Amino acid sequence: MKNLRLMLVLAAALVAGAPAFAAEEAAKPDPAMMEKVKAQMSPGEPHKTLEPFAGKWNYKAKFWASPEAEPEETTGTTESAIVWGGRFLKEETKGTWMNEPFEGVGYTGYDNVKGEYVSVWMDSMMTGIMTMSGQYDAAAKTLKMAGANSCPMTGEKARPCRAETKMVDANHYTYSAFSAGADGKEFKGMEIEYTRQ
After folding, report:
1. pLDDT tens per residue across span 5-50
2. Residues 126, 90 share a domain
3. Are 188 and 102 within one domain?
4. Neighbouring C-beta atoms of residue 46, cutoff 10 Å
5. 50-89 b/e with 16+ CB inside 10 Å = b?
6. What is the distance between the alpha carbons of residues 128 and 143, in angstroms, rounded to a whole number?
7. What does the DSSP 8-state code read for residue 69?
8. What does the angle CA 92 – CA 87 – CA 129 come to, to the nearest 5 degrees?
């Protein structure tokens, strides 16, 4: 009788453990899938497009509040570096804007899953975060991106905008930003010229 009870207890334990064992086997990673995931998580050729922007830069900037306005001009510095194993370009900017101290930080990378460049920007003049995405035009050496940001001037929660970052040569690049004016037509609201220190 004792042997029968022991056999029943062992059989019950085996039956109870079978689903857990099956789940454990199913949870083992598929090597081919893991290689695909690893490739999606790793920097590649598109990320190398961002490398020339790394370094220390002086900049001259112009801002237009409207198409007919005279530009406001300012200067500052930007220090950029490739971070996190080649995945992102980090930009840290210091200068002035509207005669006030200005600081900003941004990250630009290439999202392998989405198949596009992505960026975020935040600074000391806004409480929102600007997000953009787009593609690199190799022939024009220009990163073309579009997105939206909250606008304290117009009150828009998601004001459409676009930007073009062009590598002129090893020591110079430009950044131009565009948005819609009061008439709905696009105009250039910002132009920044960078010179390597």
Report:
1. 544 544 555 555 555 555 566 667 788 888 888 888 999 999 999 9
2. yes
3. yes
4. 16
5. bebbeeebebebbbbeeeeeeeeebebebebebeeeebbb
6. 23
7. S
8. 45
**Same domain for 191 and 102:** yes
Closest CA to 178 of 164, 167, 192, 168: 164
Contacts of 143 (CB under 8 A, 6+ apart): 49, 108, 117, 134, 135, 136, 137, 164, 165, 166
Q: Are residues 188 and 123 in the same domain?
A: yes
CATH of the domain at 173: 2.40.128.20
Residues comprising the chain, all counted: 197
Same domain, 92 and 185: yes
Q: How far is CA 24 from CA 12, 15, 19, 176, 190, in A?
A: 19, 15, 8, 54, 56
Half-sphere exposure of 145 (CA within 13 A, CB side): 22
Same domain, 33 and 51: no
Q: Looking at this protein, which amino acid is placed at residue 91?
A: E
Q: Are residues 14 and 73 in the same domain?
A: no
Q: What is the pLDDT of residues 132-169, one digit of tens each?
A: 999 999 999 999 999 998 888 788 898 899 999 999 99
Burial class (CB in 10 A: 0-12, 13-18, 19+), 1: exposed
Gap between the Cα atoms of 41 and 55, Å rounded = 25
